[in-house]
Write a structure and sequence with these properties.
- Helix content is 41%, strand content 15%.
- It is globular, with a radius of gyration of 19 Å.
- The chain is built from 15 helices and 8 strands.
- By secondary structure, the protein is α/β, with parallel strands linked by helices.
- Helix 5 packs across helix 15, helix 7 crosses helix 8 and helix 9 crosses helix 10.
Length: 328
């Protein structure tokens, strides 16, 4: 798959060429120095703070992968998006683990997983990590649930292993190289981005602005979630921060892979997403031309439906798996 970054990664990358607004230019040197000195967290520190009794680790292709495997029943394999972690699925897992076996993992370089090695960055495809995790856990059939680039991972896995992926449930997943030029961002978010570019540090204010901007209703994003995003994205700088993230890249190989998908697909889409509105759902529908597509558009929801409306997404998963397409 392409090694090009997706649009969300480009947006939050502190090296991106954001324009420096006047308010940020006027900030005092003390504020900048404080941001530069703000502490990062090692993976060990993050694990000490966030791992729990359900945390497990598996070494895959030389990378230590944090995962959770909970419940019994048909398997749901849940994949988070870029800049996120398996905690994206906490509420949905709590609601559904009494009727499904739910497997989720932190993509290497994110959450509580270890770093991507030189060898892995050079030779391992992102889907190989997901495939090996499921295989070693004895999973032969799964419904893959993915949000943002996690949905991209799901599509590529379905193309690679049609015998393993029974169906896909995708939220706000890109299918084209994504252009951010259409997005109208508030000055407060632009200021936060400019400060991050200058200080090489995404502070809590940055993540508050980020999560509010990409939400349909910012009040749905809890203070706990905001604090977690800040913590996980201030982990010690990774050498290969996005090597194991599934990405659309220039779109050429992605188009080929999407055409291979024949598993049934539910698009559970937040059309209030400033990055990937309903037109993006229309585009992915065209690319998944050989799959049976069901669509549910949610105009009050933004880019992260599992974070904003987890109870609603949990109900949709049950209905789709058990009522709409009980068998592929």
């Amino acid at each position: 798959m392409s090694k090009c970054s997706d649009a969300l990664l480009a947006l939050v990358a502190i090296a991106a060429p954001f324009a420096l607004p006047p308010a940020a230019q006027a900030e005092g040197a003390a504020t900048v120095a404080a941001a530069e000195a703000a502490p990062r967290l090692t993976v060990a520190e993050l694990r000490a703070k966030y791992q729990d009794a359900r945390s497990r680790y598996m070494t895959i292709r030389g990378m230590e992968v944090h995962y959770k495997d909970e419940g019994k029943g048909p398997v749901l394999f849940m994949v988070h998006g870029s800049q996120s972690s398996l905690r994206t699925w906490d509420r949905i897992t709590m609601l559904l683990k009494n009727r499904y076996r739910i497997v989720r993992y932190d993509i290497p370089g994110f959450g509580l997983s270890g770093a991507v090695t030189d060898e892995a960055a050079a030779s391992v495809q992102p889907t190989e990590v997901a495939e090996e995790l499921l295989t070693r856990l004895g999973v032969t059939k799964a419904t893959v649930v993915g949000v943002s680039s996690g949905g991209t991972m799901g599509m590529y896995l379905a193309a690679r292993r049609p015998d393993m992926v029974e169906r896909l449930i995708l939220s706000n997943t890109p299918s084209d190289p994504v252009d951010t030029s259409h997005m109208v961002q508030p000055q407060s978010f632009l200021d936060a981005q400019a400060r991050a570019t200058r200080t090489h540090y995404q502070d809590q204010t940055f993540w508050n602005e980020y999560l509010s901007y990409f939400a349909g209703d910012s009040t749905r994003i809890s203070a706990r979630t905001r604090a977690e995003y800040y913590d996980f994205n201030r982990r010690a700088v990774e050498k290969y921060p996005i090597a194991m993230v599934a990405r659309i890249g220039d779109g050429k190989q992605a188009t080929i892979e999407m055409a291979k998908v024949r598993a049934p697909v539910l698009l559970a889409w937040g059309t209030g997403d400033p990055l990937l509105p309903e037109s993006a759902a229309n585009a992915i529908t065209r690319y998944l031309a050989n799959a049976r597509i069901s669509r549910l558009m949610m105009p009050d929801v933004g880019h992260y439906p599992p974070l904003e409306v987890p109870d609603r997404i949990a109900r949709l998963i049950v209905d789709y798996v058990e009522v709409v397409v009980p068998k592929p």
